[in-house]
Amino acid sequence: MDELKDKCGVIGIYLSNHDDSASRLAYYGLQSLQHRGQESTGLAVSDGTNVEHFRALGLVSEVYNKDVLGSLKGHIAIGHVLYSTCGKAVIENAQPFVSRSKLGTIAVAHNGSLVNYEPMKEFLEETGSTFTSTSDSEVIIKLIAKNYKKGLDRALTDTIQLIRGSFALCVMTEKVLIGARDPNGIRPLCLGKVDNGWVLASESCAIDAIGGELVRDIAPGEIVIINDDGVLSFNFGEKTSKKTCVFEYVYFARPDTIMDGIPVLEARKKMGEVLARESGVVADVVIGVPDSGLGAALGYSKASGIPYAMGIVKNKYIGRTFIAPSQEEREAMVFVKLNAVKSDIQGKRVVIIDDSIVRGTTSRRLIQILRKSGAKEVHFRISSPPVKFPCYFGIDTPARADLISAQHETEEIRKAIGADSLAFISMEGMIEALQSCEWEEGLVEEYPDRGQRAAKGSISPSGASNCGYCQGCFLGEYPMPMIGELGKR
Ligand code: AMP
Fold it and tell me: Which among 154, 228, 262, 348 has most CB atoms closer than 10 A?
């Protein structure tokens, strides 16, 4: 079986005045979520009676045009951008998935990864379902469709109780928009308000892009049902325990996003400050690896008093997965993607900050680039702890054998990448940085339909191990047990 690991973005729009422009808003929202997936994209749109569906391989800016958006008229829309690592980009895996039956139409857009995909798929196949994709998200829509005769609410809650893993979902029928987040809230989902309507989005930057206001995050284990009456919220019964993904803050999310009450750029700056405190070094200049290392570099510079400089430029036009056939070519691509600003570097002792080391390719090449540009010393600092374990919940990390920190100690990595010194932030330091950014006050007013939301205050400030964050990639401790083959990687 092709293994499909998704890191995706989802959006949902509900226009209460029944204006038929939901697809246009969803399109702009998807543009802002493009960093979450560049392989394929899709929209499902309802005018209250019919659901139209469109999917294509490629970037949002490439695949939609006036005609496509013009043909997707309606006041409810869900959209998706997909990144997968199954090796082949195929339209069958593009989302949303749509299921049509005489009971009605359901569409699903999913960000996350199910750890019980295989047993669920087997169960569904044994009871007559057929699958058209290798995506675990198809299991979700098949389960909802199977239970739809019990009514939408029951179909959803029954489905959600059967699936295990991470899921931030946008679901729609002809008449309603629904959002749901897994009981650990591993992947993000937030609620926003636009004129005459509501938005659900993976990241608040998508709400900003369409002129909306962030209302709040969907809580772990919460379902919101949005229709003309507004937003109805309920918990789907499971015991919830917040374990949001740290890597969203470290690398994945856009810096202008506010996620679960934490402004992402602030979190990165704080990680840089902690890093400076934990592993300071005498140097002339601090630079960051664009884009996700820049926040931490700013924080490191502030805390250490060492001037910040641009130092490295990233080629804006190589954002997409580069299909390089060999490791050699992948390595060469770092030179095409990143280059040093010689005037910032020459003759200087440089502290360079990146958000993470995964395979070690980027850091090794970057150090070569800096030395070639005349750096006197290169001190590498990493604003996340060593990544030692694979992610099963939607971030694309390779198997342990390819994770340099799973195989080598820091000193060995330092030698391998050719740095004068190398240090990672500590686990406690990273959690301290995140917790220092948690906004105490509600972002906007408490949402009236929801009595007790799992608010910021519910995060336990009790250190790294019970801190409200999934740190599986660093510690190998996951929010739930791995099933079958997954545990063996
Ligand atoms: P590597 O070159 O394999 O050590 O990867 C480290 C670089 O990749 C860092 O610059 C990170 O910003 C970036 N990175 C970290 N995690 C991921 C990911 N899941 N997908 C793509 N790039 C990543």
Answer: 262
pLDDT tens digits along 407-418: 999 999 999 999
- Residue 145: the pLDDT is 94
Ligand 1: centre distance to CA 361 (Å): 9
Q: Give me the active site residues, please.
A: 8
Residue 400 has a CB neighbour count (10 Å cut-off) of 15
Given this chain, do its domains 5-246+439-488 and 262-434 carry the same CATH topology? no
- What pLDDT is recorded for position 461? 35
Ligand 1 pocket member 93 (CB < 6 A): no
Q: Which atom of ligand 1 is nearest to the CA of 334?
A: 2
Alpha-carbon distance values, 327 to 4, 101, 313 (Å): 21, 47, 23
Q: State the CATH class of domain 262-434.
A: alpha beta
CATH classification of 5-246+439-488 is 1.10.10.60, yes or no?
no
Task: Kindly state if the Cβ of 357 falls inside 6 Å of ligand 1.
Answer: yes
**DSSP reduced 3-state for 361:** helix
Range list of β-strands (E), 341-463: 349-354, 377-382, 421-424
Residue 397 near ligand 1, beta carbon < 6 Å: yes
Q: How far is CA 126 from CA 120, 283, 299, in A?
A: 10, 64, 55
Low-confidence residues of the chain: pLDDT under 70: 1-6, 85-88, 238, 319-326, 440-466, 483-489
Cα of 347 from ligand 1 centre, angstroms:
28
Q: How far apart are CA 12 and CA 171, in angstroms?
A: 8
222: Cβ–Cβ under 8 A, 6 or more apart, which residues? 180, 181, 233, 234, 235, 236, 450, 453, 454
H-run or E-run covering 171: strand 168-172
pLDDT tens by residue, 205-223: 999 999 999 999 999 999 9
The answer to whether 100 and 148 are in contact (CB under 8 A) is no
The label of the residue with tokens 């359901």 reads: 106
How much is the pLDDT for 487? Answer: 47
CA nearest to 381, candidates 293, 253, 312: 293
> Can you give the residue ranges of every domain in the chain?
5-246+439-488, 262-434
